[in-house]
Amino acid sequence: MPALPSRLLAPLALLALWIGAGGGARAVGATAVAATLAPLAPLAPLAPLAPQEASAAPEAPARSGSVVVPIVGPLSEEMVALTVRSIRLAHQSNARAIVFEIDTEGGEVTLMDRLIDEIEKAGELQTVAYVTQKAASAGSLIAISCQRLYMAPGSNMGSALVIMMPQLFGVPIGGAERIGGEDDALFKKLVGHYRAHWRAKAQANGRPAALAEAFVYAESPVYEVEVDGDVRYVTQSELDNLVATKGEEGLRRLRTICEKGAVLNLTAQEAFEVRMIDGLAVSRADLLTQLGLASGTVTVVEPSWSERLVGFLQSFGLLFLIGGMIAIFVEIKLPGFGLPGILGALLLGLWMFGKYLAGLAEVTELLLIAFGFALVAVEVFLVPGTMVAGVCGALAVVAGLAMAAQQTLLPESDRPYADAAWWSTTQSLTFGLVASCVGMIALAILLPRIPILNRAILRPGTGTAPSLAGPAGLALDAIDPSYRPALGTRGVALTVLRPAGKVVVDGRELDAVSEGEWIEAGRAIEVVTVEPGRLVVRARAATA
Which of 154, 202, 309, 414 has the highest CB neighbour count under 10 A? Predict the structure, then answer.
């Protein structure tokens, strides 16, 4: 049929609307209109004239592909940073799953908790653990915390007994020490907490909770029993409850999986038989095929330079802290020298940067430490001797360092191992500050004997003084700590006093500080205060 003239389309559309509404005066629904207009579809494009359904929001594209993250070696800050970046990348690329390829002997439980926290924040992503060699200790909890869990043939998982590892500068020293025994209160506290931790993760992902607890420590035997045709894994108390409920005839004991007092470790085949894992995969390709992800894009994430930097800075952080504090002290001791101040700021900056990248230090801590150093500078250069600014500055620096080194401001007794980690970090920080003070005292004594730095402090000589000492060319005697010049004694500034420096009084070279203002080298001075270990001078007015 030939197309109708466009001027006839509008009347026909209105007629169709009236018919669809049954002759009523009210507007019809979009479905009735569409049905009424269907016979007229070949005549002309009437869709713009018909009421349309509200445009639905565009559907998000279906997730596809996967992101693979290696968790290899002892747990580290590098792994935490890598996990955070990988999850963000998976969301940005609209991946369907994130796969953690695990081959680790475990590590610090604080790092374990942070890794698991990030994994559980993955949101819509399906989290998959693939144990390629081993998931020991903390690695076993990371594995069972994922929604899906696969193992390669020949791999193993378990052995998560809580141990204490003494460390110095973050490096383990000595051997691992098991905490007490069943009669030890700390052992009961820590083991009880982490048995519950492993059990909760297993329950959340449909895995045998009794076996997960035995990874940490088997307080009782773990049995495999059959109840009403269903195989279960139960502790002694759970078995007693089943017997009381079902009777001996209602269940069948199959075998003992783990003896009392043992720590469970399962091979891949054993883990599959007891339903701790979802399956076996001989390779990454096999795993992705079983997950239905073989046809999607596979992105393997490798550690970046910044993530490797996090691990390096955390490993040597305490050394950076000690070196930075000592360098700042040298800068204050030798005003104007410059290099120690630059080195100190660099080392402290590296320490803070490592804490910031690790997610421990925030802007608040950085500002607090900067404010503390500013107060110390005010004490040294502007108002020497008042002590108020210096003490407040030192307290602010220590508080900022302590806050930057910890995950929580105060210890948390309800998280036993995190509580122990808090005290361990506090002890390390205290050791660092004490070591810094010892280093400062040693430098104050040895500084004049250091070949390069002694030039900056103008070690006293035995010959004729330079012209700064005045026209008489006073000979500089060795510094005599017992010498005390009288008030009003005149002399000459040997170095710039900003406000600390060297002066020559009665032919002796002495350490001194100005009353407040800077005094240029060669300027005439007079003594205004004499105290044990402290000489205060001021500039004399020039005379004709």
Answer: 202
Instruction: Give CA angle at 256 (253, 260), nearest 5°.
Output: 130
Beta carbons within 8 Å of 260's beta carbon, 6+ residues apart: 218, 219, 220, 221, 236
Cα-Cα-Cα-Cα dihedral sign, residues 182, 188, 193, 194? negative
* 62 Cβ neighbours under 8 A, 6+ residues apart: none
**What is the model's pTM?**
0.59
Strands (DSSP E) contained in 200-248 are 222-227, 230-235
Listed in order, strand segments (DSSP E) in 287-393 are 298-300
- Cβ-based neighbours of 265, under 8 Å, separated by 6 or more: 136, 156, 157, 158, 159, 215
One-letter-per-residue 3-state SS of 89-127: HHHHCCCCEEEEEEEECCCCHHHHHHHHHHHHCCCCCEE
Tell me the CA distances in angstroms from 352 to 40, 125, 311, 434, one per residue in order: 74, 33, 13, 19
Q: What is the pLDDT of residues 296-348, one digit of tens each?
A: 899 999 887 776 776 677 667 778 777 877 887 777 666 555 677 778 778 87
Alpha helix (H) residue ranges in 358-503 = 363-381, 388-405, 416-446, 453-456
Task: List, as one string, the DSSP characters of 241-285.
Answer: HHHHHH-GGGEEEEEEEE-TT---EEEHHHHHHTTSSSEE-SSHH
With the C-alpha atoms ordered 240, 242, 245, 247, is the resulting torsion angle positive or negative? negative
User: Which residues on neighbouring strands pair with residue 72, listed in sequence order?
Assistant: 103
pLDDT digits (tens, 9 = 90+) for 452-500: 555 455 444 443 333 333 333 333 333 455 667 888 888 898 888 877 7
Dist CA 128 CA 291 (whole Å)? 9
Phi, psi of 537 (to 5 degrees): -130, 165
15-29, 175-189, 327-341, 363-377 — most confident range: 363-377
Determine the Cα–Cα distance for residues 488 and 495; give it in Å rounded to an integer: 20
Give me the phi and psi of 177, to 5 degrees please: -120, 125
Neighbouring CB atoms inside 10 A of 485's CB total: 19
Q: β-strand 126-136 against 156-158: which pairing, if any?
A: parallel
Q: What's the distance, CA 266 to chain centroid?
A: 31
346 vs 326: CA distance, rounded Å: 12
* Partners of 530 in beta bridges: 535
Q: Which residues make Cβ contacts (< 8 Å) with residue 350, sequence separation at least 6?
A: 313, 320, 324
- Contact indicator for 479, 510 with CB cutoff of 8 Å: yes
| 130 vs 153: CA distance, rounded Å | 11
Cα angle at 353 between 351 and 357, to 5 degrees? Answer: 125
